[in-house]
Amino acid sequence: MSRTVESGSPRIAPPYLEDVETIARELDTDIGVGLSSAQAQARLNRDGPNELRTQPVKPAWHYLLAQFRDPLVYLLFAAVAITLATWFLMDGRDWPVDALVIVLIVLVNAFLGFFQETRSQRAVAALAKLTQTSSSIIRDGTVARIPSHHLVIGDLLVLSEGDSVGADARLIQANALQVMEASLTGESESVCKNTLRLDSEVPLPERANMVFKGTAIVQGSGLGIVTAVGMATEVGAIAHLMDVTPEEVTPLQKEVREIGKMIGLAVLVIASVVVATVLMLTDIQGVDDVLRVLLLGVSLAVAAVPEGLPAVLSLVLAFGMLRMARNKAIIKRLSSVETLGSASVICTDKTGTLTRSEMTIQQTMTASGKGVVSGVGYAPQGQIHHQDVPLSGGPVYSENVLLLRGGSLAGNATLAQQEDGTWVIQGDPTEGAFLVAERKLDAPARSLERFERVAEIPFTSARKMMSAVVIDHEHNDERLLISKGAPDVLLQHCTHIQVGMDVVPLTDDLRAKAVADVNELSGEALRTLSVAYRSLAPGEDVTAGEALEAALVFIGTVGISDPPREEVAPAIAQAHRAGIRIIMITGDHPRTAARIAEDLGIIQAGAGALTGADLDKLDDAALAEAVKSTSVYARVAPSHKLRIVDALQAQGHVVAMTGDGVNDAPALKSADIGIAMGITGTEVSKQAGKMILADDNFATIVSAVREGRGILDNIRKFLRYLLSSNMGEVLTVFFAVIGAGVIGLVDERGGIVLPLLATQILWINLITDAAPAIAMGLDPHDEGVMRRSPRKPTDRIIDANMWRGVLQVGLVMALASLLTVDWMLPDGLIPGHESLVQARTAGFTVLVLAQLFNALSARSESASAFIGLFSNRWLWAAIALALTLQVAVVHWSPLNKAFSTSALTLSQWGGCFAMASAVFWFSELRKLVMRSRNPEHHVAVQRPAVHP
Q1: N-to-C CA span, the chain
Q2: The Cation-transporting P-type ATPase N-terminal domain covers which part of the protein (predicted)?
Q3: pTM of the full predicted structure?
Q4: Which CATH number covers residue 162?
């Protein structure tokens, strides 16, 4: 079946039925140099970005209207409509102040919610850009790395192990290329690819000369010409399954929503009781009185139900993710922020994560002894000769020159000279180390240009070696197989050894010496790699693959230094203090791994390491026992990583696992937090992980865990604040109705007088909820956050102790407000001399001030509010704003009329502050009791002096 490429692209037959030259001609692509930049831009403009159709981006007005889709808001608008109708029917002379104020407050609340939601959406969108995939292409004759959504039809797509294929492409070259196509075909096994044209139409799984968007390169390399992008790709044909992506809801968000519903039902019951009680015990004079009572009940429900919690929660999580991204830890999902706070084990690679990935060959070990590579050249222990002779031999050819030159040829890295004259490594740092060491040899002919590579047997994590077939054009076009890999693996393929200029059989004694040399280098914390070679017979097939890697001549071993990052040891110590166990999993020699782990404080001296071979001998039960005490694993395969993760999770651990290769993907997916390397990581590992380290640095993982814990702490802070403050409003009205006679809230006819009006309750909700809550979500993290054990995934964010605190603080808030009203009214426990309006204004003000005091206290469950009191400038700004608005509503005459308030004297303001501060002092006393009862659980808190 033919396919028409979208948006004006050329119509071509199925690419797998065409030869490469025909496709290149139809797509106007030069196979040698690729498209020009101008061609690529024109095609991008014509066809659009290489993206699948997704759910349309909602316009801003959609989020604004969503703020009004709430039953309680509907009730408020209904009450406003009835109030306006009553006002119009009665005479309509005075302005309907109550109705106008309620409408204004609802609108302001809606705009605040709209702001929170859109900010959260923009933050998540910004993070999505950080996790976009990229592809290597050839344009204008040079290799470049571009975002995959910029690929266009006709691009030359460079494919390497670990890449995620960015678009559908017809293969031009395929070198031992294997592709995992499970995302399209469901087949779990990788597919071998080639460049041969097919003669007839076949199903997608049989199109061996094609690669498809969204699949993964698991081995080998290749080059393809892009034939389809975006919705014209094979994965685009099933894009309807991806059109509607459900909004991700984290476990924490689910819990908060459940709490909101529970509180909503409880408050509706309380509001109904309050309304019914008032209606029964009050002398209702008309419809207007009934409306005021009903409006009070609705306002109480609106103010008490934390309907803004989900928006604040999403905003705080998104801001936290952005803050992590700025610190080189890119979190892909909101739920991962929660999981980070619970991480109890971090399984980490060694090279590049714990170490600098600055590979330098320091020592060599050959049959004739040890060599030392210095910064200015090569200083061997013994005579070295530099005659330019065939690689395979020569009268007095040095073993060491042979070792370094052979290691350079058996690799894919290159050395490039920059404009300033400096040389930089392009490719794998380990392979680059051979090139640098070979260049340090002060030989007359050190260039590798005379060698032509004609075949490659790629490195895989299972083989732990790679080989290259080269032709030495300056020495009779001799064909050589050169292999480089782990010493223990490579020695198994060797039957001979290089001794001086001779090749001799690899006897047991010589093999034992080679093993001892490896152990000596590993004991010095050097990474070891060995090199071997053999001459190929004239008729030997260079495409025979791994069958060529037999009867090799062992040359020797290099010791590569990769110093630990300076910041890693302190980070590991910090993780241990936080109750987080660190496990090193590496492919290096066990002695090297153990030495590095000792130096970094992961294990104690003499603890040793388990190898992949050891793990293969353990059944699941034995492995479960081993992982309890083993913290270093060496010479492991990716399948071992998966077993280790599963065993740790079975014991209840929350596991973070690092990885960078294709075969690390299963372990990254299985781990609670899969962490892909941003620099050395493959696209496949980045897609599998939930977090990407932009700097490949272990210390960044620990910082991210700290940030995750801090975010969860901040969420608990604003939940504690909002719930206790809203509880104070509910209890104020509830106890006022129950104890109206005692307080003096009765009129001359004996009816109940309410301590707060509906507009006042809505005002409190407006000025004290959103801004302080968001500011608390940005609170600087406590220093003690990394001096306590990890949070268990089963722990609820709002536990029984928090609920007790919410009820107690809410009760104190209500009592303080009602006592203030009683203090001013003439009848009650404390006889006063003020009017109802004045008393109501004072009680209203105390409730606002009490919530602002509560904002300071709620920042910690057990630590004194005086510690780091001024460290959060955003919180103080929110408090200052709320206080300014409250002064305006008390002293500005237009607002006096709108909210039925009157001015307070200076002494009355002092009394209001004193009464409101009861919440602060009660919280301090409660924390003191908690610390005295549980001193072992209390960690001294020292907040930073300034906001981060």
Answers
A1: 59
A2: 14-88
A3: 0.73
A4: 2.70.150.10
